Amino acid sequence: MKRTLIILIYTLLYLLPSQAQSHKWFKKVKGAQVAVMVYNQNGEMKETQGVFSKDQGTVLTEYDALKQATRAIVVDANGKEYPVKEVLGANAMYNVAKLQIELVKGKITYLSPSSVPAQENNTVYILPNVKAGKNASCTQQTITKVETFKDTYNYYTISDPANERLKNSAVLNENGEMIGLLQLAAKEGNNAYVIDGRFISDLKIKPIDAGNNDLKAIYIKKSLPDTEEDALTYLYLLDKKDSTYMASLEDFIIKYPTNASGRMLKAERLIEQGKYAEADKIYEEALNTNGINKDEVLFSKARAIYSLNLNKAYSKYNDWGMEKALEETRNAFNNNPLPIYTQQEANCLFAMKRYDEAREKFISLTKTNLRNADIFLSAAQCQIIQNKEDGVLELLDSALACYSKPYPIAAANIILIRADALAKAGKNKDAVLGLNDYERLAGDNLNANFYYGREQLEVKCRMYPQALSDIEKTINLAPKEALYYAEAAALNYRLGQIDDAIEYAKRAIVIDEQFADAYRIIGVCYNQKGNKAEARKYLQKAIDLGDTLASGIIDKMK
Predict the structure, then answer these.
(1) What are φ and ψ of residue 548, in 5° steps?
(2) Domains plus CATH for the chain?
(3) Which of 25, 116, 201, 489 could form a disulfide with 501 if both were Cys (CB 3.0 to 4.6 A apart)?
């Protein structure tokens, strides 16, 4: 009953004439109030209010109604409709948004935010709802409290609550200037608020807003940042899967037609979607656009085709093979001889298995500003893949020399490949030292193969304590692999630890009863201990399983 009475009182207050009707500015400004019709992907509609704040068609409104919106329409007091073109800014915390409409013929009544903030005890006037009748008047209120936020803007508390119909209405001062939009209290019956119109008007898209969750929750296209550099940064940061990504690219292309990046990004996105013919058309448009850097376009196309051909699932489009990637890379270089184009040429040659040509290109890059560890490594891999050892260690040493000690994690792969090359060159101790460096970088992310491989090298170097430690680590990481127990048995036998050797070999047999090597090792161990009967039993089992060495050992025992 009490709530009904309150609503009745406010309704009566809303309908009563107020002081504002006598102001000359009322009829002039009331047309600035608009309805905002918001639609989601299911076609469901929400309606709220807003206000035109510039003659170019800027609309200030609330944020909440725009969440999940795929489109919106602004309707003025005369029923004229204006599709929303883009979002100019939004802030969920303060529940405000700024929109840009598509302009049509005719003038717009608008209210720019007052540059003079309101003060406590000032009288303010709330414009009536856009759908209110012709005789509807302003609601008069008094500011009871002024709070500052973000150092510059004000948040006002007014003297009374307000009804739902007035939400997002423009609030004006005595001169008919807008101080802000009306916001209802979170709790019904509490006094209403006014959010500073200057704050909403100052909203704009910045490069970092590409990841802004407030904006991402609105599926209407966002405006680009003000400058070309900021707009491009925004596009690079924007999620390619964002529903507005392609539309933002189109805006950039229209606004900056000679900046190759817009068309390149669009073509690359089309390629990711499998729309190769459309992408090819975009590249051609870019190459035929006066003032554009053609080498950048050619390089983008070359990289895209190169990446496609590295994908086994790629079904060749037109002439887009690796040869085409190489051709376009060379065209880019001919337009502008940059080292990065030479690097892409080397990558293409490597992918085409033209390793000697690729190696020469990579080595030529070591004399440019692209000289780095990866360039030396790539040159070395051209040799390694052909089993050509000449110059491999020198290239790998140069690659490692690009880093200072202690080596960073980025050097780990080079260290590992270099250790393998050292081992193949018979430099086993140096190889072990390299693997030690790799272990320090890899930490706990090592598998049994690593420790088994190092153990094999340590045995060759007679580094037996280290080898024993590594074979134990190997077994701990792969406890069901019989080979590792047999290796531990052989190593312990070599060191004269016969009982340990027998124990490891028997554990290998538990895992694999057909493991002939393990039976032979046990037989040899028992022979060493002088137990000929046990030795013959295990050696014979090895012979039965096809071991050719065991028969010779039995013959020597006789």
Answers:
(1) -90, -20
(2) 25-101 (2.40.10.10), 223-437 (1.25.40.10), 480-557 (1.25.40.10)
(3) 489
Collapsing DSSP states into helix, strand and coil, what is residue 168? coil
What are the residues whose beta carbons fall under 8 Å from the beta carbon of 326, sequence distance 6 or more? Answer: 302, 345, 348, 349, 352
**Kind and range of the H or E run holding 140:** strand 139-149
What are the start-end ranges of the E strands in 308-447? Answer: none
504 neighbors 488 (Cβ within 8 angstroms) = yes
pLDDT tens digits for range 358-414: 999 999 999 999 999 999 999 999 999 999 999 999 999 999 999 999 999 999 999
Window from 132-136, 408-412, 448-452 with minimum mean pLDDT: 132-136
User: Residue 251 is encoded by which pair of tokens?
Assistant: 């805006």
Cα-Cα-Cα-Cα torsion 303, 304, 309, 313, nearest 10 degrees, comes to 150
Q: What b/e string do you get for 113-147 counting C-beta neighbours within 10 Å, with b at 16 or more? A: bbeebbeeebebbbbbbbebeeebbbbbbebeebe
d(CA 121, CA 126): 15
Contact 306, 344 (CB under 8 A): yes
Helix (H) or strand (E) holding 317: none
pLDDT-derived band at 1, boundaries 50, 70, 90: very low
Considering only CA atoms, which of 263, 268, 236 is closest in space to residue 252? Answer: 263
pLDDT at 134 over 80: no
Residues 162 and 150: beta-carbon distance below 8 Å:
no
The per-residue b/e assignment along 70-86, b for 16 or more CB within 10 angstroms, e otherwise, is eebbbbbbeeeebebbb
Give strand pairing partners of 149: 153
Instruction: Confirm if 202 and 227 have CB atoms less than 8 A apart.
Output: no
Calpha distance 140→539 (Å, rounded): 108
Residue 356 has pLDDT above 80, yes or no: yes
Q: How confident is the model at residue 16 (pLDDT cuts 50, 70, 90)?
A: very low
What is the spatial distance between Cα 285 and Cα 280, in angstroms, rounded to a whole number? 9
- Under 8 Å CB-to-CB from 119, ≥6 apart: which residues? 143, 146
Nearest CA-CA partner of 208 in 226, 223, 230: 230
- pTM, two decimal places: 0.81
How far apart are alpha carbons 416 and 438 in whole angstroms?
6
Q: Judge whether residue 15 has pLDDT over 60.
A: no
Q: How far apart are CA 355 and CA 385, in angstroms?
A: 8
Q: Which of 74, 71, 132, 61 is nearest to 108 (CA)?
A: 74
**Residue 188: is its pLDDT beyond 60?**
yes
**Exposure b/e, 188-212, CB count within 10 A at least 16 = b:** eeeebbbbbbbbbbebebebebbeb
SS3 call for 222? strand
